[in-house]
Amino acid sequence: MKTMVLSVWRVLVLLICCFDLCSAVSERQSVVNVGALFTSNSAIGMSVGPAILSAIDDVNNDASILVNTNINLILLDTNCSGFLGTVEAMQLMGNNVVAALGPQSSGIAHVISHVSNELHIPLLSFATDPTLSSLQYPYFLRTTTSDYFQMQAVADLIQYFGWKELVAIFVDDDYGRNGVSVLGDALSKKRAKISYKAAFTPEASRSDIDNLLVRVNLLESRVYVVHVNPDSGLDIFSAAKRLGMMGKSYVWIATDWLPTLLDPSGTIDPEKADLLQGVIALRRYTPDSELKTRFTNSWRNMKNKRTLKFNSYALYAYDSVWLLARAIDAFLNQNGSIISFSDDPLLKDTKGSALHLTSLRIFDQGQKLLDILTATNFTGLTGEIRFDSDKNLIRPAFDILNIVGTGSRTLGYWSNYSVLSTVPPEKMYSKPINDTFNSSSSNNNQQQQLYSVVWPGETTVKPRGWVFPNNGRPLQIAVPYRVTYPDFVTKDKGPLGARGYCIDVFEAAVELLPYPVPHRYILYGDGKRNPSFGNLVNDVAQNKYDAAVGDVTITTNRTRIVDFTQPFMESGLVVVAAVKRIKSHPWSFLMPFTWQMWAVTGVFFLFVGSVVWILEHRMNTEFRGPPRKQLITVFWFSLSTMFFAHREKTVSTLGRLVLLLWLFVVLIINSSYTASLTSILTVQQLSSRIQGIDTLRSSSDPIGIQDGSFAYNYLINEMSIAESRLRVLKSQDEYVRALQLGPAAGGVAAIVDELPYVELFLSNTKCQFSTVGREFTKSGWGFAFQRDSPLAVDLSTAILQLSENGELQRINDKWLSREACTGQTNPIDDSRLSLKSFWGLFLICGIVCFIALTVFFCRICWQYSRYSSTPDEEVKEEERRQVDGVEESGRPAGRSSRLSGRMPSFKDLIDFVDKKEAEIKEILMRKEIPKRHQLGSSHSQGHST
Predict the structure, then answer these.
(1) Mind listing the pLDDT tens digit for each residue in 791-812?
(2) Residue 614 and residue 850: Cα distance in Å, rounded?
(3) Which of 278, 302, 422, 778 lies at a CB distance of 3.0 to 4.6 Å from 412, suitable for a disulfide?
């Protein structure tokens, strides 16, 4: 009985507990608390507030989601205060909310994200600060596009228009500082930079902003990127308008804060529009859809709305509510409708404190809800809602707007898929991905496009983007104080302080620029020896000077640290050596050909003569006769073809073919010989044992180098020439003395220097020396500027204009016009014609001769086979007839006799070949007659039978 009573009690207790649990579950399932935190009277808050309330109503009235469960929205206002916003956020977290919408402020988001991490409450925020990353704040989920992508879009705009520097104007808080920092990183990939960061406090007064823009206006850059809060952004443009900074030559780019401020008003107020003419702005892109159209139509009927229209944040806020509703619905279905909170053991109320920290409780299922949120995928007002591995919305995109009149026009779109394009991003997703998102190549501009822009000052001409600063400081230009070759550049007592060819070129180029370039020349060097041009370029790279004007050689290493203009003088390293003149001698007529060429030519003369004799011997009486006569004929015919003086006529087809080709070969050889011999006998020949840089490298002789020249390091590092062999020469007199002494007497074997210097040196020494070999480097002289200097580009265009209009040549004639030395060492061996120039002709001639002989001997063999089958009686008669004919001609009778009844021998074949062609044909014709008679009698007998 006692056991039964205990069992009944246990059942009753279990039923009571189950009833209490079911009641608790049913109670928690019916209402879910969700928080919202934003500034209601801000430009963003006035669009976000009505959108969130409308979305909550739509979710609670939708029977397909959160069945028997309503979302209870707890809405708090941050009142545009970081401190109050943080307090309100802490109060919101104490209301057992499963998630929070907001805040819009990046500063508040940084603080509240730490609380969200501790309490495991997902934070669906509209803060765009790119440093709010998922690694530091795992419960922070940004439901709008990060400023990381917006700054990438700004950097692509800067690259598209070809600017290299800009000034960033931003509010000095987390939102402004971190956004500009990301912009600097994005620009560095495009070889651009932020030249000045102009920051102001969120509470900056009108005078503070005026002072800031006055400092900005003194800078070189005229491209301004404004990244501020919507509520204070127009103060920047109002001050710029007052200071005359909204006219031509200025470029203003505003981030998405400007459309956020202007979109809710529909059309821009005329007063505001007057401040913003020509401004380029970015707006978060949302594709047109039926859902977006319905929301736009319903906005008119929304309660508590304070604007006629809304900005893009309203769409993101609406989608954020539906994202959270879908996640909570999936969470309740998967988790058995259990939502629980537990106390944080680290939070304890201090005695006498009114903070009540114990009200902040941990959401036990927060991680699970967060996982569902990041895995949710649906299509909302802003397009596809889906997160990548970094918890960023996929497919970020922006509209590129141009403020014109009282509205804005769309220039194009930016997305991380297609970068800049006039085609909406959703239409580009079906095409192959554009790899230029992470590329810094300037060729990307060819793949991107935007519509034309109306710039400030109502002009469609793209501003240059920079001017010379209005701080009264001219360009500090370093000029090498040369000792050798002062014609190029050196000190002058005139107002410029420098003179020379390079100075005149620079001044002429500056005059072609459409703007003034105040500059001052600063001599670089002590005037006792040439300065180091490498150190000069390094000083420009280290901002000690704005530019270097002079005979600065463009080299690979230098282009890595400075920007050069278009070369205004071609240059290259050459070798100068002492030479001796070669006099003519009695055997000069043999010099045009090498000995190999002479040998092969002589062999071919005899070979072709022999081939022609073989082909003509049987049918041409001029090639017949006694052996001695025939041998003389071969030699005479062969050599006479050299002068086209051969008297013998060719009658055979093969002989004529061979002779025709050979005469063509002889014509080429004769012409080449004549030209080469003429050059040798009439042109002055110079000789030096140094034939060029290769022979100089292989020797151990000293080499002269101009003081300060880049050739010193080039020969050591690139040509692997020992430094101990190099001799630094400080004047042209040292050049002459070193070359005249030679290596044996303490001088140098040769001097390695740039071609312009060498030409001037040879002219000044009346061509006493000469260059040997060819230029072994190709380079040029240019003006050096600091990296990314826009002046380098404009001056390059001006230098090209100087070259085209002849002004560059005129300046060259003024300073460098001297008697040119055309004599260059021309060793006889180099000017001789070798076999490699004619082996093709000899090869063709040999092949034709071989083919002709092959055809000839095949024909001989065929005739001999027919001739050897002649009957004995006919042979005897033929031999008798030939003997008679030979005796009459005085030749021995036995020479052509042929014994019948024995096999043909090689001697018989030679005798046959020696016969005339007409005789062979006559024998073969007589041989055919008996065969025809025999064939005719056989036919007659057959008919009679």
Answers:
(1) 898 999 999 999 999 999 999 9
(2) 12
(3) 422
> Burial, 701: exposed, middle or buried (Cβ in 10 Å; 0-12, 13-18, 19+)?
middle
Report residue 897's pLDDT band, with 50, 70 and 90 as the boundaries: very low
pLDDT at 179: 96
Which amino acid is residue 426, in one-letter code?
E
Q: Measure the CA–CA gap between 597 and 543, rounded to whole angstroms.
A: 63
Residue 831: its pLDDT value, please? 59
For residue 326, how many C-alpha atoms fall within 13 Å in the half-sphere facing its CB? 18
pLDDT in tens, 562-591: 999 999 999 999 999 887 765 556 666 667
Q: Which residues of 51-71 are buried (b: 16+ CB within 10 A; e: fewer)?
A: bbbbbbebbeeeeeebeebeb
3-state secondary structure 772-789: ECCCCCCEEEEEEECCCC
**Percent helix, strand and coil across the chain, each rounded to 5?**
50, 15, 35
**Dist CA 225 CA 167 (whole Å):** 6
Instruction: Give, in degrees to the nearest 5, the angle at Cα 108 between 106 and 110.
Output: 70
Q: Which helix (H) or strand (E) covers residue 761, if one does? A: helix 755-764
**Residues in a beta bridge with 573:** 754
Cα 399-403-407 angle, rounded to 5 deg: 95
pLDDT at residue 26 greater than cutoff 50:
no
The CA distance from 338 to 102, in Å, is: 25
User: Vertex 261, ends 257 and 262: CA angle to 5°?
Assistant: 120
- Identify the residue with better confidence: 406 or 502: 502
pLDDT tens for 382-399 read 999 999 999 999 999 999
Cβ distance 112 to 127 under 8 Å?
A: no
Helix (H) or strand (E) holding 140: strand 140-142
On whether the CB atoms of residues 186 and 216 are closer than 8 A, the answer is: no
Distance CA 559, CA 538 (A): 11
Exposed / middle / buried, residue 274 (Cβ in 10 Å: 0-12, 13-18, 19+): middle
**pTM (2 decimals)?**
0.69
Distance between CA 212 and CA 222 in Å, rounded? 14
Euclidean distance between CA atoms 145 and 392, whole angstroms: 7
CB under 8 Å to 417, separation ≥6 — which residues? 395, 397, 425, 428, 429, 433, 434, 437
Residue 871, preceding bond cis, omega within 30 degrees?
A: no
pLDDT in tens, 901-935: 455 565 666 666 666 666 666 666 766 666 555 65
CA distance 868 to 857: 16
16-20, 41-45, 336-340, 577-581 — which is least confidently predicted? Answer: 16-20
Q: Token pair for residue 497?
A: 């302080």
Give burial (CB, 10 Å; 0-12/13-18/19+) of 536.
Answer: buried
